[in-house]
Specification:
Elements lengths: L2 H22 L16 H21 L18 H21 L4 H4 L1 E4 L4 E4 H26 L9
Antiparallel strand pairs: 1-2
């Protein structure tokens, strides 16, 4: 297994665990949030899905984008499964992009995000994208603890 295969496996495992969490949130709790400044559960799911597509555009262009395309802007959130279904072709596009990367690109390609304070290698950026989803999955698990609802075992 090479570095690209490991990165893809990491993204697949993160998403598998995210989905377990997302689908465990009762429908009547999707609009819950811990305070007025926080995202609701539904907003957090949507944020993760749309961010992945925006990150793809950043990675492909090798720089930040001032007005990225966001297909999620066109559709109101209804439920987790609808958003997951909608994300399937976008997710395939993201994973196929990663699979198209040469191992040497992980270190040699730079992603210029100096507008937000950094320039990183492609490999570093891919790990940041994965970390982004992982952090939000952890936040939702904390939301579920605070709501006093059952949390799924993501450590299978």
């Amino acid at each position: 297994m090479n570095q690209i295969d490991l990165i893809v496996l990491n993204f697949e495992e993160i998403r598998r665990r995210s989905i377990k969490v997302w689908q465990s949130i009762p429908k009547n709790m999707l609009n819950w949030k811990p305070d007025e400044k926080a995202l609701t559960c539904a907003e957090m799911v949507r944020h993760v899905l749309e961010s992945e597509y925006i990150y793809l555009q950043i990675l492909q262009n090798r720089k930040s984008i001032s007005h990225p395309e966001n297909p999620y802007d066109l559709v109101e959130f209804t439920n987790v499964q609808d958003d997951l279904d909608r994300a399937i072709p976008l997710r395939h596009e993201f994973i196929n992009y990663i699979k198209s990367i040469e191992v040497s690109d992980l270190e040699n390609v730079k992603i210029d995000r100096s507008d937000v304070g950094y320039i990183r290698t492609l490999g570093d950026m891919l790990l940041r994208v994965a970390y982004h989803e992982s952090v939000h999955t952890g936040q939702l698990l904390d939301y579920m603890r605070t709501m006093n609802i059952e949390r799924p075992n993501i450590w299978d």
